[in-house]
């Protein structure tokens, strides 16, 4: 009798132990949030705090110097030079990588069976680690034994052979070329996805109307790709402002800071000159620059997602 | 499917000439550095100085590969497998849990929290380098493989949560409601419905982060110091700082370092291309 009423009372559709409402989201979010706070948010804030110190890394604490590091940063020619180099990298990334990537994407979009093979091969540079690629490129650029100079000499174009990475005029440009070489396939695939979403009927209709492929590309496909192009430009600019790897591996920012970026300057200040405080000032300034540019660009483009 | 009608076209069609030329040109641009890398790696050091750079190696000499493999290379490889394996497992678990909460649970700060986490995608990671280095030293983890796992997981979580939240939002609510009626609690719903249905999202996230972390250099360089605890990208770095003049040897290390990913790529190009684009293209 009693057991009968008990089963009657127990609501069937309820979990045996109901969790308090706040506990469920907390449980699922806690691991990720803890990791992000410890290894991302705290270090970011800590970087600003360290930027107020004069500290060589020895001892437990540096000396508090207020805004001295920031005032020094504002008139540090090397910082401004590195900011200029970051901007150059951004500009060249956009004007070199995007058009070539777009051309390749259009090419693979059109080409028949062999486009699959080409796409597979074109993508290879993206799989290289920046150290491996940097070391390889350093050998290609080697003034005495590098194939680039050897081939130029064999073609009797000695005048064009340079000490690519050792000359302040050429170092940055030489490395930007490698950065482009590695990243073009990324934008190529991005644009291919954009082109794939282009409706076939539109192309056929335009062809029937007698439009040339060239006209179709400029007047129909390119406007269709506008959103994807914007995304590509945004990614290239943000990526360039925080760039580090290939410059660090190939030139370390030299010679004479000619290829210095904010990130490499920060690294050298901390780990070569042991100025943790000032290095953190550079890092924090880099954070401010990237955040400002990114939020400005996001506001201008209003969206982060490509239209594919 | 319609076939394109053959019509006389007005005007110049540059695609006829430009397209194949550009295609072949870029093929050469892409492949020549790899060709130099592989060819040089088979040369002896004397060969590499005595013969022109474009000369084929006199015979297929594996001496460089032998030397590299007898060195610490396999230790670096083992470390990479361990560090990346553990990191990816944690990224998938923590990322999927957070994505489930953000996609499906109703709580006060859901939207702002999602925005904040996604904003983490644009943080220049090098800003965190010095504080993370100091933390690692204080925690006594400097020069251990565990030093890398925390930063690796944290730097991968924003994009992973972003991708997985998108996936989980597409899972029909009815499935969840049915499971609730059957008496499933939130953990059971997450583990038995959401995780299995997010399979493609999880594999995309694993591939994207796997490749990025496999190639990660600067945190590994700063947080570890001995070959026993260093990952694969540092095999190249350490080799070049020790044997800067041994170009064939260096090319053998570079080739061996690039090989695992190229091998993986040979087996699943589509998946890897899709995975690597995950940060820019949704899913």
UniProtKB/TrEMBL annotation, chain B:
InterPro entries per UniProt: MetI-like (IPR000515), MetI-like_sf (IPR035906)
The keyword Transport is annotated on this UniProt entry: yes
Gene3D superfamilies: MetI-like
Signal peptide feature range: none
Chain ranges of the ABC transmembrane type-1 domain: 77-268
Membrane topology listed for this record: Multi-pass membrane protein
Annotated SUPFAM superfamilies: MetI-like
Membrane spanning stretches: 17-39, 81-101, 113-134, 146-168, 189-211, 247-267
Domain of life: Bacteria
Subcellular compartments: Cell membrane
CDD domains: TM_PBP2
Keywords assigned by UniProt, alphabetized: Cell membrane, Membrane, Transmembrane, Transmembrane helix, Transport
Family stated for the protein in its record: Belongs to the binding-protein-dependent transport system permease family.
Name of the protein this chain belongs to: Sugar ABC transporter permease
Annotated source species: Silvimonas amylolytica
